[in-house]
Amino acid sequence: MVLFNKSLISAGIVLLLSACATTTTPPVAVEASASRSAQQAAQQAAAIPDAKVFKRKVAIGRFSNETRYGRTFQTDASLDPLGKQASDMLATKLVGSNKFLVFERQDIGKLTDEAARNGAAAQLIGVDALILGSVTEFGRSTTGKSGFLSSTKVQTARAKVEVRLADARTGHIFFTASGVGQANTESGEIAGYGSKADYDSTLNDRAIAAAISDVQNALISKLEERQWRTDILKTDGKQVFMSGGAKQGIKTGDTFAIMREGDKIKSAQTGFQITLPGTAVGSVRVVSLFGDAESNEGAVAEIISGSVPSGNNAGYFITEQKK
């Protein structure tokens, strides 16, 4: 009888342990290995957007840690490892989104020094907007519950970041956004069995990464509000060379409108230069693409209606036709 009772107790503990498991691991799918060329082709296809993408040129001007977290064990010269971590995460996500042209600013000194070693001056390109931001909230908490023969412990990290976009020419802040992220881990014990969790420092990184992803979505949404347009590089009779290619979603056979830019007039009310609405002067059809990177890609188009002055394309641009 005693042995029977012990067996029942052991079986009960096993059932309780299985019922209170706090972490599940999804099944791992086994896939057939693909060749390196097939993988590269898939990556290149993923980098080509389905729709036209106007890639705003941006740079992260400053990203700082404005919280108390990490103030006592900083080790780098700038005394802001958390801010630099957030800045690097944001830059990685912006580049990975394929919707921005991202330029270096925070380590620009290293680039100019390296250019000087190569006997040349760094050819820096101005950006449309500077991203300025900070980690404004960061904290951790530990909660738990205790019951008969059981206990649970939950560690949670939460982060909040604030960013703003400033026009690099005027300093005007035209957009702000906040991002919030949270990460947690849970452990539990039943009758002395189960998992024990010590301090998990990776929660900090995951919470900041989640907050950066959240604010990145807001930046992309703002970007998509802007009308796609590109400039005319050169005209040669009925042939037009335009900036932008596959990485901006341009395909052979696409048709676009040729626009003459409206006059620029300074507003006495705001002090800004306001461009009056442009005028459609013709249309083009893309016949081929050239270039292999965002920095050198373009398209060759033929004029199918209207005309563009040869030799001087200032004040003209190409955009999507209105439907």
Automatic annotation (TrEMBL):
<protein>
    <submittedName>
        <fullName>Curli production assembly protein CsgG</fullName>
    </submittedName>
</protein>
<keyword id="KW-0449">Lipoprotein</keyword>
<keyword id="KW-0472">Membrane</keyword>
<keyword id="KW-0564">Palmitate</keyword>
<keyword id="KW-0732">Signal</keyword>
<dbReference type="InterPro" id="IPR005534">
    <property type="entry name" value="Curli_assmbl/transp-comp_CsgG"/>
</dbReference>
<dbReference type="Pfam" id="PF03783">
    <property type="entry name" value="CsgG"/>
</dbReference>
<feature type="signal peptide">
    <location>
        <begin position="1"/>
        <end position="21"/>
    </location>
</feature>
<keyword id="KW-1003">Cell membrane</keyword>
